[in-house]
Specification:
- The structure is a homodimer.
- By secondary structure, the first copy, chain A, is α+β, with helices and mostly antiparallel strands.
- The first copy, chain A, is built from 16 helices and 19 strands.
- Chain A has 4 domains: 85 residues, 2-Layer Sandwich (Uridine Diphospho-n-acetylenolpyruvylglucosamine Reductase, domain 2), CATH 3.30.43.10; 119 residues, Uridine Diphospho-n-acetylenolpyruvylglucosamine Reductase, domain 3, CATH 3.30.465.10; 118 residues, 2-Layer Sandwich (Alpha-Beta Plaits); 84 residues, 2-Layer Sandwich (Alpha-Beta Plaits).
- In chain A, the strands form 5 sheets. Chain A has a 5-stranded antiparallel sheet with strand order 5-6-10-8-9. The first copy, chain A, has a 4-stranded mixed sheet with strand order 1-2-4-3. Chain A has a 4-stranded antiparallel sheet with strand order 13-14-12-15, with helices on both faces.
- In chain A, helix 10 packs across helix 12 and helix 13 packs antiparallel against helix 14.
- The two termini of chain A are 34 Å apart.
Chain lengths: 470, 470
């Protein structure tokens, strides 16, 4: 099909193989994980070089056409799909070069279309660790994880995507190339443009490549699932473990027992991972990374102290790599088990870790008042204060559970505001939370953001309608 | 003395005790460590509350008067003193509140006028570590170290000031307050304004308070001074130590033997700290931090491996806290021993660690061509690629050594550019390097910085002439 004007020029820039306009070809760019956003797009392009990305943006700038940057299309807040349908989608998925793996400086330079799993493998081949790990790691790509500052399960020890990134290369609204790749651990030469582009969800520039940190590979992991009485006990356990294990504590995940019940019910796991001597409603999935020079059995020492202090009723230790894989699979299934069970209402929020128990008491109570019998399934990265605070419809619930979403969101975000929490801990704002951000963010901060957006994207063509409402 | 118009209003805002206009009272705000900048100022004010800072900025904004924010006045590039003499100095040194020390979240909320040493002590009282450590820690203050993104000797394990900061509160050009204090480890709600304000040297906003990270206190340190043959061996040693010690490696400083010779000569130290069996021209000051659960003697294991591999000729171990203090004092004396010896020409630069040997070969050779007999004294944070690359006048040199500075700078920065290094690793740009930045920085990055500056400070009243030339 011949593209409609003014896209002849765009077709010429990217070539036919990289120009996608008919409905079938567009589907993979438009369908996103939760199926919440259904706008179309004028077309999608898949440039194969940074130069080509620049030309696409020059074209878009001249013609004032809005552009939605996209890489793995795994975002959960509609940041990577159109807001109006008049946009063109600029997919970075064909920027696939590994430009360098430097084991001396421990930095890899990767283009935006490399998946996180591939990045992990490149590091592993160089006997290094790329610590970013999250559910969608097989599909999500460097461009996207940086644009959303993705988190994952090892933030506690290694930080989020922002912390793992030393510099970016990005195409600006008018097609100019910001050359910010860097292997410098220290560089105080002006404003921190890297951190401005990271987490900006493609609204200030399009990240085409990044310098990503690597770390020494742990020689072993020690992993256990602890039975604990309550989230409050979880906070106490965290403090003790962090003190004893320092930076070797790489994961500290809070898991309510309901998630494992559901996984068994829906056959997502076939073996119950929980220790059975003293069943509890709550669990901590705890992992230590051991390096050369660390003695085996560090975790055992920690568990003995926790048992002595009567904080942990029982625990299930992983004794093999297989055990560990199953444990982490179980952790990742916390989203899927909800899909299989019932309708759900979700939040991705964070507070200071000591405020987690208060948050949970108050949010659970508020939700119960709104929908008696509602089933909270609040889980996730307790060690960094980030809870995926989801609710399942009550057992046997009939009707449109999602109709309660506005009321439950409102109650949750009000409690969160009292605790100075974040309305988006790791998924970003996208389309989903742009209105919410406008209500909840410090108005001065919002004004600063708007000024910066206007300064760097005066025609508002970079992912409009995301983060900031125009 | 009655202040001249239009300062009546300013005097009224801050009160007489906080208004400083006569020459004597101004001295302490105007004299900076290296005595390079000699402009005056209209006056200095020392507001005692954030509200008062806001009112000062409202006044400055209305009257279009330029403001130089200052805290400890220890900066080395003229960022904290006036560029024209028409500015008013706004000292944050009376914002002295410790707003909170939260040991559960490991965050302290400190006002801008708290010194780094005080911050260390507050953390220590709470059985925590505030790891920032640098020569001027007794005087430099939170506002300044964040505005310059100061580094120091523990960047390797803990990062620079930016990494230690979770959020800031800042007064903007028009007096509005940006409320960005945060104890959230994860918060993806829009642009990263914290990191934009940190390192902006007071040109985008005035930091009045910050949320600073604390860490578990190490239970012990293991410190040694290694004799090595060359910087290249230093790189090899670094890779081995990092692999073996992981995050426990907190300092890795390169020290040429000349610095210790000079310290003995000028009686800055009374005991030679170097191991004598196999003298070398180069040394590494290495420190491991041990936490609960770490075995003593980790360093010995490392040293054995280094000896086996014939990388380290001999080493001097610190066997007491006193030994360690003396060793670090010796490290800190690397600036002072130059002052006592001769005129010097200095650079604060960084490259990827593997490029340090090339950098040093080429820069030394270039400097020798310019001034035969010139004495390089290149030292510092090798582990993060940051070398304080200084040169002393040749022995017996007479005349104006500093006259060679432009030529030596030019040669150094040209070599640095080839290696993609940074012209300012940790001291910032200030006035000293603003022209250099304009020449060396990626022009697109410079344009982005100018756009952001214009967006957030349209009247150019926040520390004008620093970082960006107007």
């Amino acid at each position: 099909m011949a593209p409609a004007q003014p896209f002849d020029k765009l077709l010429e820039i990217v070539g036919e193989a990289n120009f996608h306009q008919d409905e079938g070809a567009l589907t993979r760019f438009l369908e996103e994980p939760r199926g919440l956003y259904k706008k179309g797009a004028q077309c999608a392009v898949t440039p194969t070089s940074v130069k080509m990305v620049q030309k696409v943006m020059q074209f878009a700038y001249q013609n004032e056409i809005a552009v939605v940057p996209q890489s793995g299309n795994t975002g959960l807040v509609g940041g990577q799909v159109p807001a109006t349908g008049k946009e063109i989608i600029l997919s970075l998925s064909k920027l696939r070069q590994v430009r360098e793996v430097d084991t001396s400086t421990n930095v890899m330079t990767l283009e935006a279309g490399i998946t996180v799993l591939e990045a992990q493998k490149h590091a592993e081949e160089a006997d290094r660790l790329f610590p970013l790990s999250l559910g969608s790691e097989g599909s999500c790509q460097i461009g996207g994880i940086l644009s959303t500052n993705a988190g994952g399960t090892a933030v506690l020890a290694y930080g989020n995507s922002r912390d793992l990134c030393m510099g970016v290369e990005a195409v600006l609204a008018d097609g100019r190339l910001y050359k910010g790749l860097s292997k410098l651990r220290k560089d105080n030469t002006g404003y921190d443009l890297k951190d401005l582009l990271v987490g900006a969800e493609g609204t200030l520039g399009i990240i085409t490549a990044a310098s990503m940190k690597m770390f020494p590979r742990p020689r072993a992991f020690e992993t256990a699932l602890l039975n604990i009485a309550s989230p409050q006990v979880g906070v106490e356990v965290f403090e003790i473990v962090r003190k004893r294990a320092g930076n070797r504590l790489t994961s500290f995940e809070l898991l309510p027992t309901i998630g494992m019940d559901l996984q068994l019910k829906h056959e997502l796991i076939t073996r119950d991972p929980r220790a059975k001597d003293a069943p509890t409603n709550w669990h901590i999935l705890l992992e230590l990374s051991l390096f050369e020079g660390d003695e085996d059995g560090a975790l055992l020492g920690v568990l003995e102290e926790l048992a002595e202090k009567e904080l942990v009723a029982d625990a299930s230790l992983c004794n093999s790599l297989g055990d560990r894989q199953l444990m982490w699979l179980m952790r990742e299934n916390y989203a899927e088990c909800q899909n299989r069970e019932a309708q759900s209402i979700k939040h991705d929020i964070s507070v200071a870790i000591r405020d987690i128990p208060t948050l949970m008491d108050e949010v659970d109570a508020a939700a119960e008042r709104i929908v008696p019998g509602i089933r909270p399934i609040a889980f996730g990265h307790m060690g960094d204060g980030n809870i995926h605070y989801d609710f399942l419809a009550p057992e046997g619930f009939e009707g449109d559970f999602k109709a309660f979403a506005p009321e439950i969101h409102k109650a949750t975000y009000e409690i969160l505001a009292k605790l100075n929490g974040s309305i988006s801990a790791e998924h970003g704002i996208g389309q989903m939370k742009a209105d919410l951000l406008a209500q909840k963010k410090d108005p001065t901060a919002l004004d600063m953001m708007k000024s910066i957006k206007l300064a760097l994207d005066p025609k508002n063509i970079l992912n409009p309608g995301k983060i900031l409402r125009s």
